[in-house]
Amino acid sequence: MLAAVSSVQLGGAFAKTVFDEIGPGGTAFLRVLFAALILAALWRPAVRGLSAAEWRLAVAYGFALVAMNLTFYEALDRIPLGIAVTFEFVGPLGVAIMGSRRPLDLVWVALAAAGILLLSDFGTADLDTLGVALALLAGCFWAAYILLAARVGQAIPGGQGLALAMAAGSIMLAPVGVGQGGSELLSVSVLAIGAAVAVLSSVIPYTLELEALRRMPSNVFGVLMSLEPAAASLAGFVILGEDLVAREIVAIGLVVAASAGAARGSRVPPRDA
Fold it and tell me: Does residue 91 contact residue 225 with C-beta atoms inside 8 Å?
């Protein structure tokens, strides 16, 4: 699980290195496209035999997936990685709290709210407002992605639903990706980084998380997944040279604590479990 968390955030850090060449949209497109190709080869999804309702579910899942990635990368283009992931984490945190009905959840809500307010420095921090809004929107799409993933997993066997969703998502994202990336999308170095991002951010973590879930309760899984904002901050510092001040580190810690506490009592599968 720790390897999965690290892989996701390393992928995010490497993705940001090609924003100048192909933009956030082009980077998201390459990530989804390469992930779709790899998952199709692994799962060989059957395109026949699915009902119209199953197809609609897979397409909706794909839309949530690409919308989450695109809005997150657009946010990442404007604010540091650790901060972007922290704001985005309101999505899975909200789903975890909805999946539990304990009075203690009010404490986690208060902790998360305090972290978000501290991170924004009560509206006076030197953060790009659009970047923050995009990260929060990415969190909303992440929440939709989690809920749709649970339905897709029940309706379509194995990883075929994810493979179909990735394929549908790559088609949806193509106009934005080609529009932003242009001919640079054909650069060998850009393609190599795009493939690496797909493997680091999608293929490796999905595989490791599946194995982790076979060995631990989903609430423990959720607690460990809550380390992602902290892992993102570390990846941003090591790879991108993005420093954080003490206030931002404390704020990220509050959100991590709130997410971990909420996940322990949640019955909703975390992420795409």
Answer: no
Fill in the DSSP letter of residue 40.
H
| pLDDT tens-digit map of 39-84 | 899 888 888 888 999 999 999 999 999 999 999 999 999 999 999 9
Residue-wise pLDDT for 7-45, tens only, equals: 999 999 999 999 999 999 999 999 999 999 998 998 888
Query: Which amino acid is present at 256?
Result: V
* Residue 113: both structure tokens together: 């709210």
Do 135 and 12 contact (CB within 8 A), yes or no? Answer: no
Count Cβ atoms within 10 A of the Cβ of residue 127 and give its class: 0-12 exposed, 13-18 middle, 19 or more buried: buried
Burial classification of residue 191, based on how many CB atoms lie within 10 Å of its CB (0-12 exposed, 13-18 middle, 19 or more buried): middle
pTM over 0.85: yes
Distance CA 206, CA 188 (A): 26
CB count in 10 Å sphere of residue 240: 17
CA distance 76 to 135: 8
List all residues 6 or more positions away from 24 whose beta carbon is below 8 Å from its beta carbon. 70, 73, 74, 76, 77, 180
Query: Three-state secondary structure along 208-267?
Result: HHHHHHCCCCHHHHHHHHCCHHHHHHHHHHHHHCCCCCHHHHHHHHHHHHHHHHHHHCCC
Domain locations in the chain?
2-264
Token look-up 């984490």 returns 89
- Let me know: does 120 contact 242? Beta carbons within 8 Å: no
> Which has the closest alpha carbon to 236: 16, 7, 5?
16
